[in-house]
Amino acid sequence: MKVYQELSKEELLDKKAELEKAYEDAKGKGLKLDMSRGKPATSQLDMEMDFMDILNSRSDMKTEGGVDVRNYGLPDGTPEAKKLLGDMMGVKPENVVVYGNASLTIMYDTVSRSMTHGVLGSTPWCKLDQVKFLCPAPGYDRHFSITQHFGIDMVTVPMTPAGPDMDLVEKLVAEDASIKGIWCVPKYSNPQGYTYSDETVKRMAALKPAAADFRIFWDNAYAVHHLYDSADRQDQLLEILSECEKAGNPDMVYEFCSTSKVTFAGSGISAIASSEANLKEVRKSLTIQTIGYDKVNQLRHVRYFKDINGIKEHMKKHAALMRPKFEAVLKVLDEELTGLGIGTWTRPNGGYFISFDSMEGCAKAIVAKCKEAGVTLTGAGASYPYGVDPRDSNIRIAPSYPTQEEMAMATDLFVLCVKLASVEKLLESK
Amino acid sequence: MKVYQELSKEELLDKKAELEKAYEDAKGKGLKLDMSRGKPATSQLDMEMDFMDILNSRSDMKTEGGVDVRNYGLPDGTPEAKKLLGDMMGVKPENVVVYGNASLTIMYDTVSRSMTHGVLGSTPWCKLDQVKFLCPAPGYDRHFSITQHFGIDMVTVPMTPAGPDMDLVEKLVAEDASIKGIWCVPKYSNPQGYTYSDETVKRMAALKPAAADFRIFWDNAYAVHHLYDSADRQDQLLEILSECEKAGNPDMVYEFCSTSKVTFAGSGISAIASSEANLKEVRKSLTIQTIGYDKVNQLRHVRYFKDINGIKEHMKKHAALMRPKFEAVLKVLDEELTGLGIGTWTRPNGGYFISFDSMEGCAKAIVAKCKEAGVTLTGAGASYPYGVDPRDSNIRIAPSYPTQEEMAMATDLFVLCVKLASVEKLLESK
User: Fold this and answer.
1) By CB distance 3.0 to 4.6 Å, which of A103, A117, A259, B250 could disulfide with B245?
2) How far does Cα A407 stand from its chain's mean position?
3) How far is Cα B274 from Cα B95, in angstroms, rounded to an integer?
4) Would you report the helix, strand and coil content of chain A in percent, each value rounded to 5?
5) What residues pair up with B159 in beta bridges, in sequence order?
6) Among A52, A291, A293, beta carbon nearest to B57
7) Of A425, A84, A373, A71, whose CA–CA distance to B43 is shortest?
8) Residue of B nearest to A115 (CA)
9) Can you tell me whether residue A200 is helix, strand or coil?
10) Each residue of B366-401: pLDDT tens digit?
């Protein structure tokens, strides 16, 4: 087998004709599959329907401390929910404030509050001429949408398997006081499935930002989302709050988590974890902003899981459903693309995504070809700030929603489109 | 019986001695009652525990249109939830966007978005030198907290039994382009229980504000919270969206509602109703801000009530519990204070509060005396912007949480404190 780059024009044309025929056949199959977003599969949701039986009309509706969750009170969350979500992040309950149904809203809210009220007494960001965020990329499109929405300038930082390029991060935050934040998905990153190394976490915690109101937005979305049960295939992430404290930066990080992909998507509970000073500010705002979040759902979660071990056991069932899908994708990619020089891909131990990098300038074409034949992928470029991938090469594959069989079919089509787009690209310069 | 103002110094001193003795006796009773906030009573929450049985592991978790509520999707709410909450407000489902567990958060959010992004293309309010809101007062303290939190200047407008003083409102909004909003609780107002007259609603809808981004914040919190079943004792509120449209001001109002005081406090569903143009802006922001709100809880509410008639029937049960408490308060006030010239009070047909006005300069003293003897009232002044009642006379009574018997006891103490504080006040000038 030759790498595509070594093929002659003749060989490329032959291959093109052959691929085009296969592609026409594939289009004829009438596929209709969605790999665009990290949606849980229906089978996964069905599996956890016992969650709906946890509370009923005979349930005791009080917290352990005797607070009635059906009434107002405990605006920053029940003690038990703080403990449960704190344990998911490896932090103490007193460092946790529980919010509503999803963590994205907390992140939006945290940026929004910084815009209008500043951070621990700093100038509100909306009063500044320029505010910038560092955006390790490829990254999570919805993070970038938040900063874009608020007119915050986004500075791309390259990602590596150990996390963001820390030499660059250290240099930029030290030099530029307009840099107020960095977006991170530190464990099983979106879209690569990378987990930040201990060294990366320690360097992140020890940053010396020029801006006193610089904050790390640590979106620990996949804290418990392992794909494998054996310890050696479970990534471990260093706990950043205590690292920041050790490094003399106790207030530098906001951590976020939720159960949106643990129980039902969009019907979970979520939390922010941070220092006492930061949470004091959060609570001050919350008192104005809400009469409290849904404590009945907090109780439902606490009763269902009991503790962090309950969550871990539960997530093994998710893993059993997710693993074959990931493996189905990887099998096809391995068999069909290894050695061709037209793509590389990640092999995550957890999370919701596989990241694929095509030859430069092919991602949009691949996504368009897949779409035309009935397979929807996340838009090419979405994993970069402003939706622009400078190399037009990154594609996010989300195996969670379709079945294993559908994933295999979808990936068959995907590799066909990768090959075809690559051949077309190579022919351009022949 | 003489009005207190006509009593001689001697008579006042006698009365004072007598009241002080009664007050000391009352303190000895060791009361511990909370009339400070509009919290539902435990008996009310117990009564609706069948709500917890509506969904279980055997439930069909799809909307009528076939969308799985356990997964992502429908970020602006399920069609059925839009219909249900729309019917609560008397507006079409297409004018509704469903949010999370409480409407206060939507109001905060709406002000916050206007601060950072303006309104339909206007300058973001945070970029303006001055932003003002009209605050009909006495009013809802949490409204005033939101505007204060964002540094918005609050201009007090007197309330009348027919709503805010509309002559003043019309004059102010026409003259001053820095006035960007007005807070309204148009039905069973907090704290008086007043309902805006048809004329008030029509004049409100026909305002000619100097600011194109002026908005009416129409908090229809007590839309279905009647205290009486008979139609002649149920206040009717004109539907404002269509009035605004008729008056050529289709975009001038945001209406808010929730089920926080229909099902469980803090675990309800909530909505904003507005024009297509306004909702387009809301949705644009929501797409960035959230992956959608809790649709499982939307489904739970829709299945429980079925339709607006289900809500109406349900609220009759609330009324049966609330009415005796209101009547217990009114009975004591009527019997003990009528004709004394030291207080006036409202007789609402619905809502959660009774508003009491003492002689000028007595409210703080009354609240303090009640507190000392074990009855907590909302802080005096809370119903005014910045927590300052210029006459120090308004007190909000919240009869919902204690039992009927407790309410009677608490009101006995209250009238005692009113008398004592009034006598002390009158003696100051003798």
Assistant:
1) B250
2) 20
3) 5
4) 45, 15, 40
5) B164
6) A52
7) A71
8) B116
9) helix
10) 999 999 999 999 999 999 999 999 999 999 999 999
